[in-house]
Amino acid sequence: MITVTDLRKVYQQGDRTVVALDGVSLHVEAGQIHGIIGHSGAGKSTLVRCLTLLDRPTSGSVAVNNKELANVSDTDLRTARRRIGMVFQHANLMDSRTTAQNVAFPLELIGTPKSTINEKVSALLELVGLTNFADAYPSQLSGGQRQRVGIARALSSDPDVLLCDEPTSALDPKTTDEILALIKSVRDRLNLTVLIITHEMNVVKQACDSVSLLEAGRIVEHGDIEKVVANPAGRLSQALLPMPGDLPAQLPAGTVLDLLYSGASAAEPIISSISRTFNLDVNVLAGSVENLGEHQFAHLRIQLPEGSDINAITAHLIANGVAVTLKEAK
Ligand SMILES: Nc1ncnc2c1ncn2[C@@H]1O[C@H](COP(=O)(O)OP(=O)(O)OP(=O)(O)O)[C@@H](O)[C@H]1O
């Protein structure tokens, strides 16, 4: 479990004051994967540096399993850092060391006995599927395999939290899927708390239970995936379940509605229900259906013929758990 409370980081550059983190708070339970998404300059790297104690926050606190990290003394810093395992965008392996030696490195630094290191390294390599590559050097591994080594190394100090900084940004889509699947399986097996810092919405879609949107150093939206998607006005909902394409230029007269629905209702034939109940033809203009978290979500843009009873249809949809947004009435 990780709890970040009112984290602020202010940089002073000559006369200029840069507020990189402006009161960031978040709470992630053990066993949850939380995505922090933001554009360039939002404060993601600063947040990573503050969480890993590479940089001291100006104020605020970071607690792992209720143990405060941000204010520990310099002497306790090294032990405190071990509670958060770090996975980088480019695995950051040592080229002169084999896979096994890279994973062993943090354990050597803290003076772990050799026999314990060997045992631990082979268990970790099995966990990440690299048993047969123990003696390979980074140059002999693919990008995905290098990232697996990075994950094994991050887990070597038995952290409570795995902090992944753009873990798939340098990988192709297939390898991205494999690495996200590995992060999920490691989470399941070790009941880890995972934070994934990313600029890729796809990563949030595939791997996260909950998400925060970081913008100019502040979290402007956050929540469980199901919750944020179900709010059609939200930026995260629009990014996670975008409506493909613009309205066709030559649209016959009628009213255009956007429908967003989830859970059991997503599988229900909502369109035929409107057609039957109101005895009219429904034109589907665009739509997407996605499995996000535990649920299926559908986002549809429909057109109703001129003269339809929009109020009654909207009430019918809302009663069936559908969020309705009026797009255009001709
Ligand atoms: N050491 C520093 N000194 C001064 N300003 C800084 C420092 N580090 C970051 N900043 C500023 O803090 C803000 C957030 O930067 P940060 O690098 O954390 O964003 P980011 O979301 O990681 O962006 P990117 O994805 O491009 O790396 C920016 O305005 C940046 O210029």
From TrEMBL:
Q: Where is the ABC transporter domain?
A: 2-241
Entries under Gene3D superfamilies matching the protein? 3.30.70.260, P-loop containing nucleotide triphosphate hydrolases
Q: Which GO terms describe its molecular function?
A: ATP binding
**UniProt entry keywords in alphabetical sequence:** Amino-acid transport, ATP-binding, Cell membrane, Membrane, Nucleotide-binding, Translocase, Transport
SUPFAM superfamilies given for it?
ACT-like, P-loop containing nucleoside triphosphate hydrolases
What PROSITE patterns does the record point to? ABC_TRANSPORTER_1, ABC_TRANSPORTER_2
Q: Which InterPro entries match?
A: AAA+_ATPase, ABC_transporter-like_ATP-bd, ABC_transporter-like_CS, ACT-like_dom_sf, MetN_ABC, MetN_ABC_transporter-like, NIL_domain, P-loop_NTPase
A single Pfam family it belongs to is NIL
- Any keyword Membrane? yes
Q: Which domain of life is it from?
A: Bacteria
State what protein this is by name: ATP-binding cassette domain-containing protein
